[in-house]
Specification:
Blueprint (H helix, E strand, L loop, with lengths): L1 H22 L2 H8 L7 E2 H7 L6 H10 L3 E4 L2 E4 L4 H7 L2
Antiparallel strand pairs: 1-3, 2-3
Amino acid sequence: MKEILQSLKSELFAYSYEKIWEELAQGDRELLKLLTDQEEYKREDIISQMDKPNNYSVYRDRLIKRGVISSRQGYISLALPYARVKFLSEN
């Protein structure tokens, strides 16, 4: 089972997540890098860590439309399985 899971992750990273990452704007990437330590984040906590906090809603909306993150009232989180591992490795 471990081998199958590892193979699945490799395929997912190589054929999906890598393509998603390459197509993202720099600001989108920076937001994703902030979402790699825990399951869910408060909006205010992320905004306080951003270089360009005024652009938060633009980045968030683009990532939601792409299905990369999910949002609920005042909180955001990664929506893709194992994405944390991939985006953390891009730091």
